[in-house]
């Protein structure tokens, strides 16, 4: 499984998001990550399905929507209709996780479940065979530009081991504080989709292509996870 970069659009220049998406595609990124925050589940407000819908005609990249909403279940169909190729919902705050995952798949999107830093991997035991990806938060969700929490590395390793032992093919995504310094340890542990925000790709005054190249060089382009 090759390693994908998934730049997080909340960290882009919102006065020119289409240009950012084009530059990221030209730089060889595979996924774009859209962080939906509602001011309840996390203490920040960002984007909703209308933004995703507005961006959809302007990019052929995979649109990955990370729902940080108190009522994520109310918006799955809206994000899918807006053009999401994958949708992830948090373990925390979603008691009917199996139902949400089934609904994401019914919409034709890849289904992911997100673990906050303090949530153990073991809580996914029953649902892991149904997942297309697991998102390991390596910061407490809510803001771009936070520091990578090393506890995420162990959880990525656990998921990598489980994936091998059970013969599953879910992707392992990591989100928060990824940089040329922190990404190599996440990839070595088994991560294969790296969300990249203000800590790596969207750096003031630096062309996006240069930031992406630095990340790809740090992890080794096309590198196979351990
Ligand atoms: C944080 C979001 C992230 C964020 C990552 O809650 O889920 O996707 O934008 O940004 P960086 O890479 O700056 O930590
Ligand atoms: Zn995210």
Could you explain the architecture of this structure?
The protein is of the alpha/beta class and 226 residues long. The protein has one domain: TIM Barrel (Alpha-Beta Barrel). Helix content is 31%, strand content 19%. The chain is globular, with a radius of gyration of 16 Å.
What key attributes describe this structure?
19% strand; binds D-xylitol-5-phosphate; TIM Barrel; 226 residues; globular; binds zinc ion; single chain; 8-stranded parallel beta sheet; alpha/beta; 7 helices; 8 strands
Provide a concise account of the structure shown.
With 226 residues, the protein is α/β, with parallel strands linked by helices.
Describe the secondary structure blueprint for this structure.
Layout: E1 4-7, H1 17-26, E2 31-37, H2 49-55, E3 62-68, H3 76-82, E4 86-90, H4 97-106, E5 110-115, E6 133-137, H5 151-166, E7 171-175, H6 183-189, E8 193-196, H7 208-219
Parallel strand pairs: 1-8, 2-3, 3-4, 4-5, 5-6, 6-7, 7-8
Helix pairs in contact: 2-3
């Amino acid at each position: 499984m090759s390693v994908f970069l998934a730049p997080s659009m909340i960290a882009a220049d919102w006065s020119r998001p289409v240009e950012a998406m084009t530059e990221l595609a030209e730089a060889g990124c595979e996924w774009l990550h859209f962080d939906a925050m509602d001011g309840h589940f996390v203490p920040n407000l960002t984007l909703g399905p209308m933004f995703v819908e507005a961006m959809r005609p302007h990019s052929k990249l995979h649109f990955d929507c990370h729902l940080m909403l108190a009522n994520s279940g109310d918006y799955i169909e809206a994000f899918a209709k807006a053009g999401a190729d994958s949708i992830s919902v948090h373990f925390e705050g979603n008691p009917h996780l199996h139902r949400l995952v089934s609904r994401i798949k019914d919409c034709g999107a890849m289904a992911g479940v997100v673990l906050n830093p303090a949530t153990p991997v073991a809580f996914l035991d029953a649902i892991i065979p149904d997942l297309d990806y697991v998102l390991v938060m390596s910061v407490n969700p809510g803001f771009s530009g936070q520091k990578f929490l090393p506890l995420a590395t162990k959880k990525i390793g656990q998921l990598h081991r489980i994936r091998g032992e059970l013969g599953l093919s879910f992707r392992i995504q990591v989100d928060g504080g990824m940089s040329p310094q922190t990404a190599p340890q996440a990839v070595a542990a088994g991560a294969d989709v790296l969300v990249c925000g203000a800590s790596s790709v969207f750096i003031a005054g630096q062309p996006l292509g240069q930031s992406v190249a630095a990340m790809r060089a740090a992890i080794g382009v096309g590198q196979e996870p351990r």
